Amino acid sequence: MHHFWYQEDRLYCEDVAVAEIARQVGTPFYLYSQATLERHFRVFESAFRSLRHLTCYAVKANSNLAILRLFRRLGSGFDIVSGGELIRALRAGGDPERIVFSGVGKHPAEIDLALGHGILQFNVESAPELDILAERARALGTVARVSLRVNPNIDARTHPYISTGLRENKFGVPTEDVSALCRKARRSPYLKVVGIGFHIGSQITRLEPFVDALTHLKELVLGLKRQKVSIDHLDLGGGLGITYNDEVPPQPDDYGRAIHGIVKDLGCTLLLEPGRVLVGNAGILVTQVVLTKQNAGRNFVVVDAGMNDLIRPSLYGSYHAIQPVHLKRRGRWTADVVGPICESGDFFAKNREMQVVRAHDLLAVMSAGAYGFVLSSNYNSRPRAAEVLVRGERFKIIRRRESAADLMRGETIRPL
User: Fold this and answer.
1) Lower CB count within 10 Å: N or C terminus of the chain?
2) Is there a domain that residue 415 lies in?
3) Which residues are part of the catalytic machinery?
4) What is the CATH number of the domain that holds 235?
5) pTM
6) Angle ∠(59,61,64) on CA atoms, nearest 5
């Protein structure tokens, strides 16, 4: 459920007309509904109310400070994958002891930053990473809490670019290496094994991959306990999908029930790392039609947003619904919705049946709250878009649009 709807043929975000925001802010811009963000978090949390758990929002999905602050107020911890995300989580008021650090290539400087703040755990993905972590903890005179990320070789049945649980992927450690890595970590006075976990991919729309991976992990946990390795945390990662088009992903309650039946007797605290499922359908990208044209009978709708603003259609071939901000009785046509960037891959939709539009009309690219602005760039020297948050009848710019000066910040005009 989200809070974008039509009133008298005009699209609203909660109780604010999208066109009015566009008039004041300009286009393109990202628009988020606070009511949707809050509802999604509470629904997800309630699905695990019968289990001891900690929800750590995956910052990579949408890292705007205001959104992080909102989730922190709702009780969330954070799952981070870089030093920059750690700084953002802390700036938003995040508790370091509710932060987990994932990622396959943590830089020593990032590790030092996280150790200095005393984060909850590092999700370790290789033996070399374990060595680096032990060395940095020794240098700082502290102990690093470690959770091993297992690669269970399970197909998440999602796009190959966002599948992370197969042996061919760069993530995690093979199951057969886990015991040896635990023994290695226990020999170091600077490491403490506290957990084990997995993350098999993103935009997963079936429960079976989660159940298979968790069943695999449960057997591994029981085997480690027989070896006197205490596992306090069971990190289940994220990956629960959303509806972009005709997908019917599991509801959080279904997900929670499936997990409860497997882990209820393990005595571990669950760490959950939802991202897309919280923010994906809570945001849209609003763009204005620059012009329409035809090439050999093919209709093109050229808008002022581009692949630098939302790269998912170009990168993954992803579907995003596109809705008019003002419903009009002009009939329908089939068109490509494209941006102004000098790439044939600069598109939001191809052969899309939609309302006939004209120059200056506004369009809403739906389900853009996750992996939208965070993947944006300055390609073609385009300023990145503004971000706006709505609550009830009010809205607030939570990231201003970049200026020409922003585009050149840090550069020098003087060659050698």
Assistant:
1) C
2) no
3) 342
4) 3.20.20.10
5) 0.94
6) 65
What phi and psi values does residue 142 have, to the nearest 5 degrees?
-140, 180
Q: Which residues, at least 6 apart from 355, have a Cβ–Cβ distance to it below 8 Å?
A: 324, 327, 328, 330, 331, 332
Token pair belonging to 415 = 């060659």
Alpha-carbon distance of 269 to 408, in angstroms, equals 47
Q: How far apart are CA 161 and CA 241, in angstroms?
A: 15
Detail the DSSP E strand segments found in 296-343: 298-303, 322-324, 332-338
**pLDDT tens-digit readout, 228-265:** 888 999 998 888 889 999 888 889 999 899 888 888 88
Amino acid identity of residue 389, one-letter, is: L
CA distance 313 to 369: 14
Residues facing 148 on adjacent strands: 124, 196
Answer whether residue 159 shows pLDDT above 50: no
Residue that the structure tokens 């990208």 belong to:
285
Tokens of 11: 């699209």
Token match 């997908």: residue? 247
Q: What is the rounded CA–CA span in Å between residue 18 and residue 24?
A: 10
Is the same domain home to 89 and 144?
A: yes
Dist CA 356 CA 337 (whole Å): 12
The verdict on 240 and 187 lying in the same domain is yes
Residue 87 and residue 143 share a domain: yes
Range of the domain at 295: 4-32+280-408
Within this chain, do residues 127 and 266 fall inside the same structural domain, yes or no?
Answer: yes
pLDDT in tens, 12-38: 999 999 999 999 999 999 999 999 999
Rounded distance, CA 399 to CA 319, Å? 26
The tally of domains found in the chain comes to 2
